[in-house]
Amino acid sequence: MTGEGIRWHRYVDDYVLIANSPADAYKALAFLSHMLADFGLTLNKTKTVMLTSKHYSDYVTTQLGGNEDEAGKLREIDLRFDPYSDTSVEDYESLKQTVESLQVHRLLNRELEKAIPDTFLVTQIGRTLKLHEPHVAIQLVTTLLSQGNLHAFRASWSTIMRGVAKLRSSEEYSSTFAEIDRLLDLIPVHSAHLLQAEAGLLHYLRTLRFARTVQRAIFVQKVYDSTRSDTVWRACIDCWRQWKDGAAFNTLRNKWFTLSPECQRMLWLSASAFGDQGEALKRQFKPNLNQSWRLGIERQGVASFSSIYQEWCENAQSGE
Predict the structure, then answer these.
(1) pLDDT band, very low/low/confident/very high, at 244 (cuts 50, 70, 90)
(2) Reduced to 3 states, what is the DSSP secondary structure of residue 7?
(3) Taking the CB of the first residue and of the last residue of the chain, which one, N or C, has fewer CB atoms within 10 A?
(4) In this structure, what are the phi and psi dihedrals at residue 304, rounded to the nearest 5 degrees?
């Protein structure tokens, strides 16, 4: 590349190419791509970006934590809260007051203006969602989940989804539920690519458990039918459990012997949500559980995994 007159820097597998114009930049990038191909390597297209010198300078400053404004303060806050602390209530209120003192929505909008948002800062904002009043929280969620922004924030997807799930599970934020559900239902329409990776899909399914809509019912059924992942199957079954979807439960009950042990256990846990249908499933399959859920490490006189799991399910159902 030096011989070609390209100005470049490299750190491990990251390249920075410097050019005087977009045309020169694309020419240098093409040369790098062809050179790497000779070694059987390719550029990661999702991480390859063009930046002006100002944007690059801002990006480097951000990554180094060089700014001392509210963004810097938000980065430094420890948002991990210990509910078992002797001063848990005081700690939580102090954390809320600290977060409320920052103009978090303004910080989020500022990230949208950047060519590459600060991933850690956006992640921190996702962690603060449940520390805001409902009207502020829904503003942040609307910005984070909107069609034009979600792709830019994709690196913080898991934290954003966890933050949204926490809001959706708390009655304190019931006034935001309808809008959150509307925004969530639009994601497969405008940002389906974010659901291609299993981890991204699992985080999304977790946010759907709290309410059933026609769109969600169709989506979850399609996911269940198209996947080959036990983990995703269990997440779909958990959605049907929370929705109390009797039709889906009955269909799985009739396919019991084709289900993996992991999915059988999730369906067993779900049984308590389906009244007589659930009790019928337990009566029908309980005699076979010790054998079908056998781990191969059972010992005489020691409780088996199967019996422990069944007892745990009973306790979970009774709230113990």
Answers:
(1) very high
(2) strand
(3) C
(4) -80, 160
Question: What are the tokens at 10?
Answer: 């490299």
H or E element: which one contains 281? helix 275-285
d(CA 145, CA 131): 18
Side chain identity, residue 151: H
Q: Is 48 helix (H, G, I), strand (E, B) or coil?
A: coil
Q: Is 280 helix (H, G, I), strand (E, B) or coil?
A: helix
Is residue 23 packed enough to be buried (19+ CB in 10 Å), middle (13-18) or exposed (0-12)? exposed
- What count of other Cβ atoms lies within 10 Å of the Cβ of residue 258? 9
Question: To which residue do tokens 């791509």 refer?
Answer: 33
State the Cα–Cα distance between residues 267 and 153, nearest whole angstrom: 35
Q: Cα dist. 140→134, 167, 248 in Å?
A: 10, 12, 34
The model's pLDDT over 6-37, given as tens digits with 9 standing for 90+, comes to: 999 998 888 999 999 888 988 999 899 889 88
- Residue 320 confidence (pLDDT): 46
Integer CA distances (angstroms), 58 to 45, 53, 71, 147, in order = 22, 9, 13, 25
* Other beta carbons less than 10 A from residue 291's beta carbon: 8
Grouping H, G, I as helix, E, B as strand and the rest as coil, residue 8 is: strand
Domain ranges of the chain: 1-50, 67-211, 239-320
pTM of this prediction exceeds 0.85: no
Dump pLDDT digits (tens) for 79-88: 455 666 666 5
Backbone angles phi, psi at 17, to 5 degrees: -110, 135
For residues 181 and 216, the answer to whether their CB atoms sit within 8 Å is no
C-alpha–C-alpha distance, residues 72 and 75, integer Å: 5
